[in-house]
Write a structure and sequence with these properties.
globular, single chain, seven-stranded parallel sheet, alpha/beta, 7 strands
Length: 283
């Protein structure tokens, strides 16, 4: 956190410390006596849900502003996709194992795509085009790793799940966040987004893809490059042309995104959209 501004008034930190040193009596041991902002029972109650929403939004916003991060490049994709050469830890049968291990090529492309974005970000002192992922394994790890490869910072927006999840080791520690609410996490994914790159994944990936398209379609969000990596995968999974034919979306709505295969192809779409200079990856 940033240093506090000098003030002649007592700070909340000082009063928390003073309250802890109060004599132990029935009154001071009652939860009613706890300072409201230091009372975990009160802050996690149903009545303060709105405050928790605000705090989850404000903490991340505060730290990103302190860091001077104006815009981001968002990577969504499957947590179960392994690094090439590593076993498919999430596979439940032989078919899944083969498919997930074959999909490891997207780990490579996500990593390279993040390198392109991060080298572009370096030219503006990492204030724009900063990589952000969900902070977990698979494609998320590849995105944060690509940034780390070129010495760039990257953001991880983790969320507490019933099963164990920890941030991948490539997220910049000072930019590794954790959420309780999916809603506030979603806001921070798109609030600064200049690009959304979507790799093969499951329900969470589909959720973020369709939410991004809906925001652009309804003009709640400015058009930005939305890149869908892997034509063969997505052709099997979704059929937006069928929706257009049925009349439930506009005939031009499938044009809201671009299908690409490689990091180079995807970054060229971004570069042309924003008129960015070319960058070259070290081989």
């Amino acid at each position: 956190m940033a240093r506090r501004h000098q003030t002649p008034l007592r700070t909340s930190v000082e009063d928390i410390d003073a309250a802890r040193r109060a004599p132990s009596t029935p009154q001071t041991q009652s939860s009613a006596y706890n300072l409201a902002f230091a009372d975990a029972e009160f802050l996690t109650s149903e009545d303060t849900r709105g405050i928790r929403f605000q705090l989850e939004y404000q903490k991340v916003e505060y730290l990103l502003r302190e860091r001077g991060i104006n815009s981001t490049v968002v990577l969504f994709g499957g947590a179960r996709i392994p690094e090439p050469g590593k076993p498919a830890w999430a596979a439940k049968n032989e078919t899944q194992k083969q498919n997930l291990e074959a999909a490891s090529r997207y780990y490579i492309e996500a990593r390279r795509f993040a390198q392109y974005a991060s080298l572009t970000s370096k030219a503006v002192d990492y204030s724009d085009y900063v990589i952000v992922t969900g902070g977990g394994p698979g494609v998320m790890e590849a995105g944060n790793r690509g940034a780390a490869d070129v010495g760039a910072p990257s953001i991880g927006l983790n969320i507490v799940l019933p099963h164990e999840q920890a941030p991948n080791r490539y997220v910049t520690p000072e930019l590794s966040f954790n959420f309780h609410y999916f809603a506030t996490r979603k806001i921070h994914f798109l609030l600064r987004a200049r690009v959304v790159a979507i790799f093969p994944g499951g329900f969470g990936t589909l959720d973020e893809f369709f939410e991004t398209l809906t925001l652009i379609q309804t003009h709640r969000m400015d058009p930005i490059p939305v890149l869908l990596f892997g034509a063969e995968f997505w052709k099997k999974v979704i059929n937006l042309e069928a929706l257009a034919e049925a009349g439930t979306i506009a005939p031009t709505d499938p044009d809201l995104f671009t299908v690409v295969e490689t990091a180079e192809e995807g970054w060229n779409v971004v570069r042309q959209f924003y008129n960015l200079p070319e960058v070259a990856l070290a081989e």
